[in-house]
Amino acid sequence: MTTAKNIFGLRFGSNEVISPSREDLNAFLGSLKKERGTERHEDDLAAYRELVNRVNSYEQGQLHSVGREDYREKLFFSALAHSCFFDQGLTLAMEQYKYYQHAFAQLDLRKPMSFVRSAEAEMSGLNPNRKEDAAKLARLQGMVDERKKSLETLKKNRVSLSAELAAIVRYIRENLAKIEKLSEAALGVLVDVQISSSEEKRLIEDVKQHFKEQLKDALRHGPLSKEHLEQVKKDVETLEKEITNLAHEDVSSLTRLYKAIHDHIAKYAAELGGLIAKLDPQKELSVDDEKQLFSQIEESLIALVRDHQFPVKTAALHTETPYEDILADKRKELLERLFDLLQKDRRIRHERRSGKERRTLDDPDYKDAERRSGRDRRADNRR
Question: Most exposed residue of 35, 160, 164, 190, measured as fewest CB within 10 angstroms of its CB?
Answer without folding.
Answer: 35
